[in-house]
Amino acid sequence: MKILVTGGAGFIGSHLVDKLLELGYDVYVIDNLSSGRLENIKYCLSSRNCFFEKCDLKEPNCLERFNSVNIDLIIHLAANPDVKASYYDPETNYNENIYVSFRVLEFARKKGVKRFFFASSSTVYGDAEKIPTPEDHSIKPISIYGACKAAVEVLTISYSNSYKIKSLILRLANIIGPRSTHGVIYDFIRKLSRTPDTLEILGDGSQRKSYLYISDTVDAIIKLIGYIDDMEYLYDVFNIGNEDWITVNEIADVVIETMRLGNVKKIYRPATLDGRGWIGDVKFMLLDISKIKKRIGWKPSMNSRRAVEETAKYLIEETVKTRSEDS
Ligand code: NAD
Q1: How far is the CA of 263 from the centre of ligand 1 (A)?
Q2: What is the pTM of this model?
């Protein structure tokens, strides 16, 4: 199978590419390295089965570079994943998330690609009335990012129906692990490395969300590749997340403890009266994952706390290593 991964040099993409190569697939990677890094795809760059093109998916002929390849599956991960920034700059989010996805779907249509995965997000639900939130819950995003993901979901469904492209929409919870360059753990480590006695927390710290480790995420996507051909529908939607959740305050404590810091003063910066970290921050997020568990027999191997602990350990070691290399 020949698999094209957009955003394959990013956090999730690069771990997925490593695994796909390990399993013997031919992998085609497109990334403009806006947030991805060459360092992440070292394994790909030295593999005979991996082909990397640095280009921007907004450019009309970016995808055409793989015109001569019969792609069996596109896993579309490229995006601007910054939820907070989407409030200040909706146009960038529109271009990077909606327009880019349109280009990728157009490539699938013109090239006759018959399988398509789209990395959507738990943010499409907004402030869900039901928690854990199942896939058939209403979609009412509260951020521009969530709205762009929801728009691409429906675009994907229309391409699926119109051009008979089998599609899976993956609504991801917070994914964490080595190589992540955004999110709360990364932010706390960066801040505490600069000022070890104080920690600025966006929001009132009571936000509670579900976190999934990267290897569990990759495992779910790999299992879904095996499932798509047997799927009785043309498209389907799966929540991919953990079965429990953890508060921002608890995450702060894990990071402080892992960095072996003593008395750290926490300074809270709520962006809204109800204590959100930024406008568009979903305060409580826990996905119902019973559908994916039942359909493909996948379940997370570690809970949210363990995922946070592992990620903090790894990212702190990374920070120390980078610092000693710089000095
Ligand atoms: P990331 O920023 O590490 O990866 C995105 C990759 O896309 C980067 O390598 C970036 O350079 C590339 N890219 C962006 N715009 C591009 C363009 N115009 N042309 C070519 N390449 C481009 O982010 P990630 O955390 O790995 O997220 C991957 C996907 O999963 C994204 O679609 C994101 O919205 C979605 N997602 C992530 C999470 C999470 O917690 N990490 C949660 C829900 C959904």
Answers
A1: 35
A2: 0.97
Residues in the chain: 327
C-alpha to C-alpha distance for 68 and 110, rounded to whole angstroms: 12
67-96 pLDDT, tens digit per residue, is 999 999 999 999 999 999 999 999 999 999
Q: Which of 37, 40, 77 to mutate to test the pocket of ligand 1 (most atoms within 8 A of CB)?
A: 77
**If we measure between CA atoms, which residue out of 116, 91, 17, 104 comes closest to residue 59?**
104
Q: How far is the CA of 159 from the centre of ligand 1 (A)?
A: 22
Long-range contacts: 39-43, Cβ < 8 Å, 24+?
A: 40/9, 40/10, 40/11, 40/13, 40/14, 40/179, 41/8, 41/9, 41/14, 41/17, 43/17, 43/18
| Contact indicator for 302, 166 with CB cutoff of 8 Å | no
Tens-place pLDDT, residues 253-278: 999 999 999 899 999 999 999 999 99
